[in-house]
Amino acid sequence: MLLYILGLVALWFVYRWCKELKRVSNKEEKYVYITGCDSGFGNLLARHLDKLGFRVIAACYTEKGEDELKKISSDRLTTTHLDVSNSESVSKAAAAIKTLVGVKGLWAVVNNAGVAVPSGPSDWLTIEDYKSMLTVNLCGVIDVTLSVLPLIKKAKGRVVNVASVFGRISPFGGPYCVSKYGVESFNDSLRLNMAPFGVKVACIEPGFFKTNVTDTVILKNNLQRLWDRLPQDVKDDYGKAFLDQGMKGLDDRFKVFTDSDLMKVVGCMEHAVSAVHPRTRYSPGWDAKFLWLPLSYMPTCISDKLFLKSNPKPQISVL
Ligand SMILES: NC(=O)c1ccc[n+]([C@@H]2O[C@H](COP(=O)([O-])OP(=O)(O)OC[C@H]3O[C@@H](n4cnc5c(N)ncnc54)[C@H](OP(=O)(O)O)[C@@H]3O)[C@@H](O)[C@H]2O)c1
């Protein structure tokens, strides 16, 4: 009986593998709009899709990002300036894209742009800190998507949203997980809403990868800045040792978890854009697959115990 079940499971994996091999045709006629192409996954995806023959519209936050990308890509790739937190900038980019793609519409948008700071314990942050990240990571994704959705419906194309495995579980405080849970929710409702129009919506949920988002120098500077501005009573609650252990914990954990092979994520993004049968969710990274996602399915009392045990304790902790 066990062998029979194992055989069926193996057969299902082979069937899925074969089904997922098929790629869409006429890549050279398909426009793909990617946000946050200055660095990290977005930059690598823009170069990768350009090499595969897609017409890439790479949105960069900085002029330097645009110039560097242009230098190393084919003349099929066009760049545009985009600040996803600014609706005027989003509309301007969408208008330029509408003219560029013409009657065929836009094949795909990849909502990749994102920030990871300010990040810290929830009571170290202000509502302005939350708003600043939500404006980029969540409202930016929604704004960019809505701005080009009519063009995507025309092409019966795709929306690819880069969330995070921290859109499935919240092991630390601050707006990052809040924003990524929001992206997951927007992604899921959009997938249902767009299905009747032949538009496919996919979500990428990476674990830890080596980019600016996981740069420990940036993250530690951010923690120090938040600590320095805390009122004395909150500093007394936590104690300086909490900050020191937090900084050390960042170094130790990121050394273990952070994967430098960005192609694991970019390969998933490429599949979501170019496969005939893309998945609804991709969770690249061994930590996402074998740690964070399984933890997210566990009873809260178990995951809480684990996180509380591994996190530094405030000076006046009752635990
Ligand atoms: N790295 C990871 O471990 C990891 C894990 C899960 C999810 N993610 C997600 O993956 C996505 C890409 O991040 P990454 O890891 O590749 O880091 P990254 O190199 O920092 O890429 C983020 C990109 O977004 C751009 N950006 C920042 N603010 C923007 C704004 N207001 N408007 C337009 N663009 C803006 C950045 O431009 P500048 O470089 O000029 O600031 C950068 O090009 C993010 O959504 C991130 O949350 C990353």
TrEMBL record:
<dbReference type="InterPro" id="IPR036291">
    <property type="entry name" value="NAD(P)-bd_dom_sf"/>
</dbReference>
<dbReference type="Pfam" id="PF00106">
    <property type="entry name" value="adh_short"/>
</dbReference>
<dbReference type="GO" id="GO:0016491">
    <property type="term" value="F:oxidoreductase activity"/>
</dbReference>
<dbReference type="InterPro" id="IPR020904">
    <property type="entry name" value="Sc_DH/Rdtase_CS"/>
</dbReference>
<comment type="similarity">
    <text>Belongs to the short-chain dehydrogenases/reductases (SDR) family.</text>
</comment>
<keyword id="KW-0560">Oxidoreductase</keyword>
<keyword id="KW-0732">Signal</keyword>
<feature type="signal peptide">
    <location>
        <begin position="1"/>
        <end position="18"/>
    </location>
</feature>
<dbReference type="InterPro" id="IPR002347">
    <property type="entry name" value="SDR_fam"/>
</dbReference>
<protein>
    <submittedName>
        <fullName>Dehydrogenase/reductase (SDR family) member 9</fullName>
    </submittedName>
</protein>
<dbReference type="GO" id="GO:0008202">
    <property type="term" value="P:steroid metabolic process"/>
</dbReference>
